[in-house]
Amino acid sequence: MIGFLALFIFNFYLIKNDKNIIIDYDNAYLKINKITSFLEKNSILRVPLFNENCENIIKNQECENIILSNPELEPTSTQQFVVQNFLNENIDVKVYNDNWIKFADTTDMYITSEVAEIDLSSISKESINLFERYRSFYLDFFDQYRSNFVQSKFIANTERLGSEVNIVSETIKNKKIISKKFYNEENEIAQLLSSPIVN
């Protein structure tokens, strides 16, 4: 019992002084800056536009000038960059263009080599010993306590996650990074960072 109490006090101290949330936020902020910087430099294109008036004219000075479209985000290089660099990361990456069309979403992508097959008949039916039960109970209790502590610490700065389109619209309109804390679908607090890709 004394060991359990000492372990509990030690873990309580670890939870109170846990800097992982701040470290995770800083890492996510660096990653979103990396994504934004890469896409601004490598995935913004100006597409040549076809002038329909020049179709039957052989020589015309206006027809020799190439007219380019407004700068646009190119979907193929965007998707390729996100898949190659952020598919197996602990953050969800979603990239939208100015028209709110989603070009990349790591929550919808998966690697086919990660599919596993389990033979249910080979699972052992051995009973779990007392130590394993204690260990399982303690880890579940510790995880629940940590989750409650984190929620109580950040509850004042959170809101329900609404539509992603509203956040995308706000980011495009304000042209600055948006940082908010939301409750996700599992009622867990999630950090959301949204950064504009400036043409």
Describe the structure.
The protein is an alpha+beta fold and 199 residues long. It has one domain. The chain is built from 6 helices and 9 strands; from the N terminus they run ααββαββαββαβαββ. The chain starts with a helix and ends in a 5-residue tail after the last strand. The relative contact order is 0.12.
Q: What is the average per-residue confidence, as pLDDT, rounded to a whole number?
A: 77
Kindly name the structural category: alpha+beta
Number of domains: 1
Rg measurement, Å: 25 Å
Low-pLDDT ranges: none
- Biggest β-sheet strands, sense, barrel: 3 strands, mixed
Arrangement of strands in the largest sheet: 7-8-9
**Terminal residue distance:** 63 Å
Proportion of residues in β-strands: 15-25%
Note the topology.
Elements: H1 2-16, H2 20-42, E1 44-45, E2 48-49, H3 61-64, E3 67-68, E4 72-73, H4 75-86, E5 94-96, E6 102-105, H5 130-154, E7 158-160, H6 164-174, E8 178-183, E9 189-194
Parallel strand pairs: 7-8
Antiparallel strand pairs: 1-4, 2-3, 5-6, 8-9
Task: Give a brief rundown of this model.
This protein has 199 residues and is an alpha+beta fold. The chain has helices at residues 2-16, 20-42, 61-64, 75-86, 130-154, 164-174, and strands at residues 44-45, 48-49, 67-68, 72-73, 94-96, 102-105, 158-160, 178-183, 189-194. Helices cover 45% and strands 15% of the residues.
